Protein 1
Amino acid sequence: MKKNVLIIGAGGVAQVVAHKCAQNNDVLGDVHIASRTVEKCRKIVESVHEKKALKVDGTLAAHTLDALDTEAVKALIRSTGSQIVINVGSAFVNMSVLSACIDTGAAYLDTAIHEDPLKICEAPPWYANYEWKRREECARKGITAVLGAGFDPGVVNAYAALARDEYFDKIESVDIIDVNAGEHGRWFATNFDPEINFREFTGQVWSWQNRQWVSNQMFEVKKVWDLPVVGERTTYMTGHDEIHSLSKNLDVPHVRFWMGFGERYITVFTVLKNLGLLSEQPITTAEGQQVVPLKVVKAVLPDPSSLAPEYKGKTCIGDLVKGIKDGKEREVFIYNIADHEEAYKEVASQGISYTAGVPAAAAAILIARGDWDVKTMANVEELPPRPFLGLLDRMGLPTCIRDEQGERRLHFA
Amino acid sequence: MKKNVLIIGAGGVAQVVAHKCAQNNDVLGDVHIASRTVEKCRKIVESVHEKKALKVDGTLAAHTLDALDTEAVKALIRSTGSQIVINVGSAFVNMSVLSACIDTGAAYLDTAIHEDPLKICEAPPWYANYEWKRREECARKGITAVLGAGFDPGVVNAYAALARDEYFDKIESVDIIDVNAGEHGRWFATNFDPEINFREFTGQVWSWQNRQWVSNQMFEVKKVWDLPVVGERTTYMTGHDEIHSLSKNLDVPHVRFWMGFGERYITVFTVLKNLGLLSEQPITTAEGQQVVPLKVVKAVLPDPSSLAPEYKGKTCIGDLVKGIKDGKEREVFIYNIADHEEAYKEVASQGISYTAGVPAAAAAILIARGDWDVKTMANVEELPPRPFLGLLDRMGLPTCIRDEQGERRLHFA
C-alpha cells in the first residue's frame, strides 16, 4: 500500500490526472502538483475546487519544480511524503524524475517515452535507449516504475494483453488505431503539446513487421478503417511508443500504429516540415539569435488546453487484433469511445487529455492498492489488464469490443 | 556630374548593382559596397572580378557598415568620396541612409519603400509616412533623391510615364502585372528577402480605385492574364510601393498591382500566416526566449541568391494601360521579359535580382551624367522616362510593347 501522489506537469493531461486523483483521494491521500510554472499548477488546483472534485477533505497543493533537477524532485518527494509520482511533464524529464523515484523509493509512472531534446525517432526499441537501462536497478531496489500508462501507450497495451490472455491462442498482428473525430473549431491546433506532437512525426516511422523493425516516411503508408461510432476514417502509419514495448513483450509478428489525420493537419505538417520549421536543432537568425524553430512553432500555436471549451465530437482508440483461437482465425477490435464535451463537463479538459490522464490516475490507484505495485519496472502489457480496465470502466473510459458477435461493452466484475 | 558610388546592402540585388556599376565604372568612378556582414560584400567583389566586369581599372572595395547608424553612413560616404549612394539594403534603413545623404550632399537612390520593423502595410500613401516628409528639405538643400528605382517600383513607373507622355491623352487605368514564370527547383523559396517578401502580403492590400484607396485581403481578388512569352498566368491583387506614388503623380482613376503566385506559394503563405509565423511582432517561447516569428521563417528559408545557379525560365513585368488617344479608346501593355539563366550567366544572379538591380545602376548612371540629377526628391514617374528606358535597353532590360499593332521591342535612339 502506497499513498500521497506528486503529479509532475501542469498541462492538459495533468489537469485530468489532478481531477481524477482528487476524485479518488480516499485511496490516494494527498495530491501535489508541481511544474516549472507554479501559476499553471494553481489554476489546476482552482479548477479541482470549482468542480468540488475532492472526494474527502485533504491536501491539494501547487509547487514550483524544475523536473530536470533530480535533487529538486527528490526534495519535493520527501517534503510532501509522496509515495507515488505521476510524471505527466514534458517528454524530456522522464529520466531525471525516474532517478529521483529510485533514490527515494517512490513509485514512478508516466504516459510517454523519454526524449532527448536534440534527437528524434531514435533507434528502436525506444525504451531501450533510456528507461529500460534502469530496469535491473528498479528490480534490485524494489522500485515500482510503470511506463507508458496513458491511453496510447497504456490502455492499448492492456487491450493487447487482454486479447492475448482471453481472445487468442496465437496473435498474428496488433494494429493500434487512434482516431480523433472531434472538431475544435480552430484553423489549426494540436491536441497535445505541439512540440511533442510534431516530434513524433518528423523522423522515420518505425513499425514492427515480420518480427523486424521497418522504417517508412510519415504519410507514406495510408489505411482507411471503418470504425465503431466514428465511421470510415483515414489513418497513416505512425511511429509510437507502444510498438517499442509490445514488439518485445508480446510474441507477435506485426505491431503497427495508425493515426487519423485530416487534410488540414497534413498540409500544415508538410509545409512546416519542408520549410525546416519543425526542426529540433537550433538555427541562427540574420540578427544572430539562436532559436529552435519547433519551439517557435509551439509558441504560436494554440495552447491545447485552450481548445477544451469548444471541442465537440468523439475519439475512437483501440486495438485491431488478428490471430488464431481454437484453431480458427479471428479478428477482434477492442476499443474505447470518448466524448470531448463530456470530458469538459467533468474535468474541464478536452477528450485527448482525458483519455491520456484518466489511465494515469487509474494506474496510480492500482499502485496505491497494491495490484500494480510490482516492485520493478514494467510496461503496461506486463501487468494484469483486468484490474486496470475494470477501474477505467468505472472512471469514465469503458472498454468495448467488436467481434463475430458485433459491438458491445465489456464488463470487468 | 557626380561620381563614385556607395552601394549599401550585399544581397542578390546588390550583387547585380555591383556588377552593373563595375561595367560602367568609366562613368561612375569608384565602386564601394557596404553591409553589416562584410564577408558578403567581399563575395560580391570576388564575383565582379571573376566576371572581369570592371570596364576600366578602378576602385572596387568592401566595407562593414551598420546602415541604421546615420553617422557611420556619413563617415563612409565622406571617407570614400561617394557622391551617389545606391541603397539596396534592408527596407528598414532607408531613412537613416537618406539622412546621411542629406547631411553630406550625396545623391540618394533606392529600390523599395522604407518600413518600420514593427509595422506592416501602414496607411496609404506609404511614401508620405517616411520619405516624402524629407522632400522639401531635399529641394531646399538641392539633394537628389530618387525613390523606388528598381523594376517595380521603378521601371514600371517609367512605363506609366511613357504611356502618359506618348501613348495617351487621358489614362483611365494602370494595371501593373508582375509574373515570374521561372522555376528554381526548390520545394519553396522566395525570390528576394523572405522577411520583406512576406511583409508585403500579411496586412491589407491597398489599391487605388475610382481615385480612392480601397482595402482588400491578400488572395481575395484574382485575375488571369494572357501575357506575352509566358502565356496565361494567375495573379492576385497585391499592395505595392508604386501605387502609392503613381496615385499621386499620375492623374489616373485606377492604379492596381497584380502579382503572379503559384499554388505552392499560396499554400505555404496561408499556413504560415494562419499559424502566426509571419508576424513581425515578438512572441515568447515556453523557455522565455523573445523571438520574432518572421525572422525565424526567414532563417530557415533558402537564401534567395542561392537559387540563381538552378533558376530557369522567364519573368514578365509590365504596365497594362487603358485610356483615350485621339478620341479613341486604346490599351497598351508596356513590358520587359527577363531570363533567369541569362542573368546568371552575366552577373551570377537570378532574374528577380537582375530586374531590380539593373535599373538601380542605370539610375545611378543618369544621376552621374546629370539627366536625373534633379536636386530634389523624386519618384521615377516624375523623371524623364526616355533616358532611363534607353539606358536599360542597352544594359539588358529591353522594353517591349503590345498594342493594336501587336508585340514589338521599343527603341530609344
Protein 2
Amino acid sequence: MELSARNQLNGKVKNVELGMITASIKIEVEDPNVITAVITKESAEKLGLKEGDDVKAIIKSTEIIVGK
Amino acid sequence: MELSARNQLNGKVKNVELGMITASIKIEVEDPNVITAVITKESAEKLGLKEGDDVKAIIKSTEIIVGK
Amino acid sequence: MELSARNQLNGKVKNVELGMITASIKIEVEDPNVITAVITKESAEKLGLKEGDDVKAIIKSTEIIVGK
Amino acid sequence: MELSARNQLNGKVKNVELGMITASIKIEVEDPNVITAVITKESAEKLGLKEGDDVKAIIKSTEIIVGK
Amino acid sequence: MELSARNQLNGKVKNVELGMITASIKIEVEDPNVITAVITKESAEKLGLKEGDDVKAIIKSTEIIVGK
Amino acid sequence: MELSARNQLNGKVKNVELGMITASIKIEVEDPNVITAVITKESAEKLGLKEGDDVKAIIKSTEIIVGK
C-alpha cells in the first residue's frame, strides 16, 4: 500500500513504553535524532514494536508546524 | 519559548509554493530527506519563508503514525 | 507495511478535485457513506487517484472526536 | 450545532476503556467495521459513554491519509 | 449533539476567504483575539459562513501544543 | 523562534494531571475560559508545568473544526 502521507522517515525503535491506553515509541531516525510517537498501546502490541525494529514514522504534511 | 512538541527537526527550506489559502513548504532535514509541511499561505508570508532559510519542522507526537 | 493507525476503511474513490496545493478526495466507504479527505495535490497525483480506485481511508484514533 | 467536519459516521459504542488521562472508545460504524477513537477520560465520563450508545465518529478531512 | 472535544470557544466570524479546496475562517473569540481555522471550502459554503455569524471554534485537546 | 501556527493563546496553567504516558494540562486563557491540552507526560515534566505558569496554547489552523 502506498500512502498519501508525504513524510515517511525510516528509523529504528529505541524504546517502547506502554501506558494504559497510549504508548510512547522513541524512533531513532538518524543519529542523534530521535522522534517520539504517541500511539495506542493496542497498536504498539499489534505491531509487536520492540527496540531495534525498523519502522517508518509517517506524518501527514498538514500536521507539521514550521518554526523559524 | 519552549514547546511541548517532542519533535523539532532542524532543516533548510528547499521550496515554497503558495496556493490561495495554503502553502506547501519543502524542508530538507538531512540530505536526502525532504519533509513537506502544508501551512497557511498567510503563515508562509508572515515568516517570510524562502529557499535556504533555517527552520524547524515541529510535530506533536500524537500526530505520528508508525509503520512497520 | 503495517500501520499503527487503528482505523483503515476500505473504499472507492468517487471524486478527485485538485486545487493549487491541496486536493479533495471523496471516498465511498460503504453506500451511501462518503468520506472526504483533504490531501496534498502532490499526493493525489503521485498516487494517481481517480474515480473507481480501491483505496483505504486511514485515520489515527487520536484524531477522532466523538459526538453523542 | 452543525459542524464543518465533513465526516460524521453514525455508530454504536462497543467498548469503553478508561486510562488515567485518555480513554479508548470502540465504535461499531457498520458491522463488521469498528472505529477506535482515543479521547480524554474526562470526555468519556462527561458524555457518559457506554456500550450500545448511539454516537457519531467525527473526523476532519485534513486528518485522513489515503492509502492505495 | 454533545462533543468529546474539550475545547469549544464561542466567537464571531470576522472574515471568510475561499480558496479552491480550502477556506480560511477568521473567528474573533474575544476582542482582540482572532482564531484562524482552515476548513474545506465545501464546509464553509454548507455552513453558509459569513462575517458576524456566531460560531464555535472546536479543538480536540490532543491537537494543542503548549509553549512556555 | 516564530511559529507558523496561526493560533497562540496566552494563558495560565490551572492544573496539571500526569498519567503514565500522557498528561492533561488545563490552561485558563481568559476567565472563565479554560482550554484542555493533552500532551506527553515527558513534555509536561520537561517544561516543568505547574499551576500559575504563563504559557501559550498553540493550535495549527487546520486542526480547528467550526460549529455553527
